[in-house]
Amino acid sequence: MEKKGVSLQSRFMAELSRANFPMMVGFALCQVWLSLCFFAPQLFPENSSVSVYEISLVACVVSLVPALASPKASEAWLERPWSVRAVALCASVGTLAIPFSAGSTGLDGALQVFAGLLTGIASGWLFVGWYQAFCKLGDLIGFVLGVVANNLFMYVLTAVAYLPEVSPWIMVAVACALPLLSALLLNRRPETADFVGEPTLPPRRSQPRRVLALLCASIFFVSFVDEFMRNYYLEGTDLAFYSGSFNLVLLVAKVACSTVLVVIIADRSRKMSLVYRISFLLTMAAVLLMPYGGHCPDVMYGIASFGAFLFKIMIMILAFNFCQRYRTSPLLVYALTRITFSLDLLLGFGGFNVYRMLAPAVPDLLGLISVALGLLVVAIYSFVFTDRSYAPSFVAADGPAPSGETVEERCDRLVRVGSLSRRESDVLRLVAKGRSAPRICEELHLAMNTVNTHTSHIYQKLKIHSRQELLDLLENMAPEEERPSVGGRS
Predict the structure, then answer these.
(1) Which of 241, 368, 373, 432 is the most buried (most CB within 10 A)?
(2) Helix (H, G, I), strand (E, B) or coil at 463
(3) Is residue 487 in a domain?
(4) What is the pLDDT of residues 412-428, one digit of tens each?
């Protein structure tokens, strides 16, 4: 066992050395900023500007709609350094306005709207910028460890925030500086042109479209449950929870868990299903014990937050692998998931407020809600995460491809099986590398109509109908002699 433990530690350190450390830190700072931004009013007892949170969520959703309508232009805009700096400035100014927005006067209301709009825009675009950067770089390990680093930074900052010697305004200044530092690190990300994603959603009724729909459904419902439980268990004491001793225990557990997770991801192990089961059990325990957890809310929410931590890791892996596998624009996928996440947070926050109003009139309401949320969690974990359509999105994390061939070797086999011409072979290899049609035109010095014709011939000869099916074929190729139905000259 000791030898095995040493092996696990050495493999973790080896994978950690491959992750982009500045990007990991920058992503963590972005997450810490958002938490401090929303919970900043808790540092000022007289501040009751909770409306900033709701306005910010709505602003986040609305601001990301252009990313869905015009992903290519949005992607180009977000990759400009000045755009990232502008988004970070919105985050900083909006955060600074929050402590001044307490009260019920017209000026206070205007400040709340102002702060909500700026922080909402930043919480959408700055996060999507980080998601896109990690996905294009192919750094899944750094992406996941950024979540762990966020938990570490959050504990340290909140512990300092509650020291009597520390003024709340110091924490506000820190919160204002964090998005600027995060943007600085994002603008220094390594440049890469290896990943090219299609700026369109997968075709309707296709497997990739089904996977994306299931991904959004799982984010929506599970995050809704977590947001409801956060409001129920903590009731505005989030910063006190993050700085507490029980959260320190959870932090140690998360760091230990991340060591195993990194090795699972790096080894492409099928033990990822264990993460899913643990997350399910923790979430179910926190949901079903809501009627009895009022005496120890920190412990109960700690259980829920650990389940949510594992759930977030799974979602990140799924979305990351979806972009890599189907060569879909990361900006498009992550804008869609970010919109979904913001909507369910808004719904969870509103749902808790409705419960609080109705609870005095309906004595058994909490028990009914607990059962309903439990059934919802069972449905999502049982039918969504175990759906067969999800398997391709877990391939990169769960297991190696059916054979040990390289992409070039698989292309060679498809060329032989489909009897492709030399030019069709060239087009096939570029498609396998994720090149878009305009990029193929540039590299092969061909007209767009010629590239489209070659692509159509490839589809006909391999008996497929889309780029996604071609990528599926490359990923899941059976031995050549087992594919007699594919190929033949047409």
Answers:
(1) 373
(2) coil
(3) no
(4) 877 877 788 888 988 98
